[in-house]
Amino acid sequence: MGEQDPGGGKKTAKATKKAAVEDGPAKRVTAKQTSAKKTPAKKAVVKKAAALKKAVVAPKKAAAPVKKATPVKPVAVASPRSESHTALVRRARRINRELAEVYPYAHPELDFENSFQLVVATVLSAQTTDLRVNQTTPALFAKYPTPEDLAVADPEEVEEILRPTGFFRAKTKSVIGLSKALVENFGGEVPGRLEDLVKLPGVGRKTAFVVLGNAFGRPGITVDTHFQRLVRRWQWTTETEPDKIEAAIGALFPKSDWTMLSHHVIFHGRRICHARKPACGACPIAPLCPAYGEGETDPDKAAKLLKYEKGGFPGQRLKPPQAYLDAGGKPAPPLGAG
Ligand code: SF4
């Protein structure tokens, strides 16, 4: 985050920039890429990086997430303390490009067919999994397909449907309340402006950005629990409040990247970079990660920690996008089926 280390950090950062964070077209990190062309510089880079107070030497081994373990040669990652803003921007964008290759099918993991369904599903996703919401909303939207229907619903009947999502009484109030607000204030349409969305019951900035990004194509950063954890592990920011994280990360990327960046980061957090046991040994961006080693580094043990399609399991959506299915992803089972 700060300026370059005066005691040699410049050279290291320069070498690192070449070796690890070159801002060229996106390429998958592979053993070949990280070793073949950079061999003469590699030793010096690692040596210099070790001399830095908090230099991080990335993994001795890592693997692509689904494929069998592929060794990745060590690459020096500049100490974020000695990393210039330019170097941070390049490293952050490089990570995003790598993630785009790992998750070319990244998407919102809530099932929805229109903006009304998305805003309701996002409100319901508080304190539960997207899977549980996806298993619950088919019954809700079958009975109440429009804001007008849900606005006049019997709360007890809605509570019964929403029970599996937890906090079902509060959620019932929110979705009936927001439906009423949509009918009374917006002609039964979901508004496409942040300032209008956040006035709806149960809708905060996070929900609003999900809706803006995925139903209106307006760029937004979704700072959920995964996003917060990963950007801190990558030392993209030291901020801890969602609004400040959103601003700090927004400054590292062009606006047009914000929505897909959010999906990439959240996909990675759900599949590989878990809260308690990150699967570092199976992480394709390990060579770029200052937190490598926080989790399991043995490739075989790490591979067993992978979730959803990366672990060969069903995803969260009952109706995932075709790109997800084409990549070998499986739909989630309906409620009660698993
Ligand atoms: S902490 Fe581990 S799993 Fe997470 S991004 Fe870094 S290397 Fe990958």
TrEMBL record:
The entry's keywords: 4Fe-4S, DNA damage, DNA repair, DNA-binding, Endonuclease, Glycosidase, Hydrolase, Iron, Iron-sulfur, Lyase, Metal-binding, Nuclease
Pfam families noted in UniProt: EndIII_4Fe-2S, HHH, HhH-GPD
Reaction catalysis annotation: 2'-deoxyribonucleotide-(2'-deoxyribose 5'-phosphate)-2'-deoxyribonucleotide-DNA = a 3'-end 2'-deoxyribonucleotide-(2,3-dehydro-2,3-deoxyribose 5'-phosphate)-DNA + a 5'-end 5'-phospho-2'-deoxyribonucleoside-DNA + H(+)
Record-listed E.C. numbers: 4.2.99.18
InterPro entries: DNA_glycosylase, Endonuclease-III-like_CS2, Endonuclease3_FeS-loop_motif, Endouclease-III_FeS-bd_BS, HhH-GPD_domain, HhH_base_excis_C, HhH_motif, Nth
Positions that bind [4Fe-4S] cluster: 273, 280, 283, 289
GO biological process entries: base-excision repair, AP site formation
Comment on bound cofactor: Binds 1 [4Fe-4S] cluster.
Cofactor(s) this protein requires: [4Fe-4S] cluster
UniProt feature, compositional bias: Gly residues: 1-10
Annotated region (Disordered), positions in chain: 1-40, 312-338
UniProt GO MF annotations: 4 iron, 4 sulfur cluster binding; class I DNA-(apurinic or apyrimidinic site) endonuclease activity; DNA binding; DNA N-glycosylase activity; metal ion binding
Function: DNA repair enzyme that has both DNA N-glycosylase activity and AP-lyase activity. The DNA N-glycosylase activity releases various damaged pyrimidines from DNA by cleaving the N-glycosidic bond, leaving an AP (apurinic/apyrimidinic) site. The AP-lyase activity cleaves the phosphodiester bond 3' to the AP site by a beta-elimination, leaving a 3'-terminal unsaturated sugar and a product with a terminal 5'-phosphate.
Family membership: Belongs to the Nth/MutY family.
Protein name according to UniProt: Endonuclease III
The species this protein was found in: Streptomyces lincolnensis
Gene behind this protein: nth
